Give the backbone structure.
Amino acid sequence: MKSIKVLAPMAGITDGNFCKKIAGQCFDVVTIGGYNLDKKTIAAGRRIIQRGRPEFDIKEENIISAIKKEAVLIKKSWNGIVSANLRSTSPENIVKVSKLPEIDVVEINAHCRQPEIIDIGCGQALLYEHEILYDYTKKVVKSAESKVSVKIRANIKNVDDVEISKIIQEAGADFLHVDAMKPGYNYADYDLIKSIKENTEIFLIGNNSICDLESARKMVSAGADGISIARAVMNGKIPFDLSRINSENF
């Protein structure tokens, strides 16, 4: 089976110009963001910037038009899928982004581990509250005019990743994007990807430590339907030939 290739979001970096530069390098999907959509997440983002971490800083009244502008920039020169990774204290703001014709996928960010985001109940804080995560995802799925993805961070203390994956599937999301981080190791948790795949039927995108052909193929072999790449392409160029992932010959 052919594996799809996704350019993953990097807060403060993955905008239209970045994606436009790299999209044609064998990616099927590019993700802009992560973007903060409401007063609380925008304020949290500004506090993150103050301590030196890159972050998009866009006023609440301008955020929808800013996302549209970035997506249009990509679509003008590329006919692939554009996804937007989004942080919001309410699902309604994510639904608004889904109504942009240039956005093919809205991605709920249940992944960010910055304390300023967690403290307001966003990012990976959603993983501790099963009912809230289900209801939030369900509301987006019900009203969105695009496909819906949920990105999660794996191997967080006191979080059952397989159970979380089942909840996201039951809520109706189209994609599950898993940052399969394995604390203390410089490679992804392939066993976790395998376990999620064996216990769900949702389209599974594997992320973390994909930096060469070998790590990409390991993620696919573990059961991922697609792979996503972020840090390895921060310089604007893929360090290996993505088209060879599904090839039998190295």
Notes: The chain has a mean pLDDT of 95.
